[in-house]
Design brief:
- The chain is α/β, with parallel strands linked by helices and 262 residues long.
- 46% of the residues lie in helices and 15% in strands.
- It has twelve helices and eight strands.
- The longest helix has 19 residues, at 182-200.
- The radius of gyration is 17 Å and the shape is globular.
- The structure holds 1,3-dihydroxyacetonephosphate.
- 1,3-dihydroxyacetonephosphate is lined by residues 11, 97, 169, 174-175, 213-216, 234-238.
């Protein structure tokens, strides 16, 4: 796995008030101290970002946002800029989640624009790709993730691509309890890495981290993480309780036995 440190990130979606979010991270930072083989991040709703990032300061757990606007500032009512995310203490930002694509009309071009907007601020994009059920059934999974990857990363340098995170989240596996099999997830993620290799070279392909997301639970984490191209998980439902999120972190750290701190 060429030294890639897996990233276990919790996407809280539209859940948790500020007190709930802060008490979660207070508990998590005690419990998760010492799992050196994996990196951990939580992505709260915007309202909880500042207190969560403040509570995590000095720990190895990072804060991330779930979306971002592509301009640094301006008359864009209701939006949050990369400058504001940096200011709030974010390291990561999820871009192009399937729920944004499905309910808010986000396109590959918009995803690309947002990725380009956050990189100059030192934020790490977590670019989501993944096919819908009808696309999987039609046998076009590779075509869909290919097009999302190519368009989403267009115009980036190999160095920029090497530093980012891609999350493969098959839409039919999100919140449904249906996980892609380890082999299926590995196949698609290996394919995404090959697409990156074709476009940006082996160095970038060897360094870019590619997560799996979609009904990840403590019980299915180790198997997924044992796959050679899967570098962590983007977790929805199971990231909302400390116990289950911690179970995933532990399982992922165990799956990378022999590489503590790598
Ligand atoms: P679930 O883990 O609830 O399936 O959600 C996955 C997801 O959308 C993470 O971004």
């Amino acid at each position: 796995m060429e030294g890639r440190r897996p990233l276990i990130a919790g996407n809280w979606k539209m859940f948790k008030t500020v007190p709930e979010a802060v008490s979660f991270v207070q508990e998590l930072k005690q419990a998760a101290a010492g799992f050196k083989g994996v990196e951990v991040a939580v992505c709260p709703p915007f309202t909880a970002l500042v207190p969560v990032a403040a509570a995590l300061r000095g720990t190895e757990i990072a804060a991330g946002a779930q979306d971002v606007h592509w301009e640094d500032r301006g008359a864009f009512t209701g939006e949050i800029s990369p400058v504001m995310l940096k200011d709030a203490g974010c390291r990561y930002v999820i871009i192009g989640h399937s729920e944004r694509r499905q309910y808010f009309g986000e396109t590959n071009e918009l995803v690309n624009r947002k990725i380009k907007a956050v990189l100059p601020h030192g934020l790490v994009p977590v670019m989501c790709v993944g096919e819908r059920l009808a696309e999987r059934e039609a046998g076009v999974t590779r075509q869909v993730v290919h097009d999302q990857t190519v368009a989403g990363l267009a115009g980036l340098t190999p160095e920029q691509v090497a530093g980012l995170v891609i999350a493969y989240e098959p839409v039919w596996a999100i919140g449904t309890g249906k996980t892609a099999s380890e082999e299926d997830a590995q196949q698609v993620i290996g394919y995404i890495r090959a697409v990156v290799r074709d476009l940006y070279g082996s160095e970038a392909a060897g360094r870019v981290r590619i997560q799996y997301g979609g009904s990840v639970k403590p019980g299915n984490t180790a198997g997924l993480m044992a796959m050679p191209d899967i570098d962590g998980a983007l977790v929805g439902g199971a990231s909302l309780e400390v116990d289950s999120f911690l179970g995933i972190i532990k399982a992922a750290a165990g799956g990378r036995a022999g590489s503590p701190g790598a």
